[in-house]
Amino acid sequence: MIKTAFLLLLLLIAAGCGRTAGSGNTLQTKSSGNLAFVTVRKSHFVASDYSQGGHYQMVVKTRNKPEIYAQNDALENAKYYTLLENGKHKEESRVSVQKSNNEVDSKVMLLLDLSGSIIEGGCNTPGSTCYQLIESANDFISNIIQGGRYEIAIYYFNAKKEIMPLSAQSEFPTANVTILKNAIGQLKDDNFIERYLKGYDNSTNLYGAVKQSGEKVCAWIGCEDKNSFEMGSVVIFTDGRDLADLVSKRDMLKSLKPDIQYYTIGIGNADNKTLIEISGKAHHFEASEENIQSAFTEAYNDLLYNSSFYKLNYCPSTREGTLRVKLFFNDTEHHIRAYTDEDKITIDPQNDIRCDIY
């Protein structure tokens, strides 16, 4: 799970049976999703620009955000938040919220299946699977890098035992779009195909690739370091199933890292059942071989959506002593509630704090 140094927000209830199909931007009245937050940073007093002014702050990440908020994000609305001081709410307390995706560094591995069925139609032929993959991956890169503090590494897999970086420059996460797109562009180079991909195109080491991807991303974000916090994601694209039999499905599933978000894109004859086991149904996207772009679009929208961060600013009405504080989110219309864990703050009696939240 996310590092123990951070406050794990309590998952409460979300009633209902799902967002129904419809048009426009009207919210439906039921939700199947639960709401949970993870606190990734807290500040026990954030000074403002004027003397003795300031407030307290938490930065939280959403986890399992209900689909009901996909069209209109209620988590940005301060009216749903209440500050509890020693278990009680006082009308004089203040809370504000601001969505901010530039709070935490995020490392993303784009893991591409480059087995024979992907490259056999040629990568320079408009409409071919490989050509569409290049175009879709380039759009994915542009949109993710623009979405916040994201860095991307690009790897591929086929029959090889190890996943391989698409270029030396894409071996480690970078926000340099030129480097990333140049790496993708190598697929249009016949010499690159001949040197690195031909001869490894008769099998697919999907399970081994998934296992290795988690290990690498964990190394980048420090899964074992409980005193740091970075986001990690793996986006897997494939049109097939594991044929190499180098790693068992059981071992692959056991290797999935709880600190990492997995997203899967399946086209053609992809083993979508297994891909769903890897990423979960909500993070799995399918498309026809003629429309790869749609799946990549859904994937990067979902990745950005599920990596949403919020600054929760609060100012208690109590002006002296040690307080147990927690924030309570309550959307009564959609029956969604959540609390933060209690946090203790100590207000210095020597300071006449001027709250700057309005």
Average pLDDT taken over every residue:
85
How far the N terminus sits from the C terminus, by CA atoms, comes to: 35 Å
What is the CATH fold-level name of the largest domain? Rossmann fold
CATH homologous superfamily identity of the largest domain:
von Willebrand factor, type A domain
Q: What is the second-level CATH architecture of the largest domain?
A: 3-Layer(aba) Sandwich
Sketch the major β-sheet: 6 strands, antiparallel
Helix share of residues? 10-25%
Q: Please identify the structural class as seen in this structure.
A: alpha/beta
Total discrete domains: 2
Give the low-pLDDT segments.
1-31
CATH hierarchy class name of the largest domain: Alpha Beta
Total beta-strand segments = 17
Number of helices: 8
Please provide the ordered H/E string of secondary-structure elements.
EEEEEEEHHEEHHHEHEHEHEEEEE
Task: Considering the chains and any ligands shown, give keywords for the structure.
six-stranded mixed sheet, six-stranded antiparallel sheet, 358 residues, 2 domains, Rossmann fold, disordered N terminus, alpha/beta, 30% strand, Immunoglobulin-like
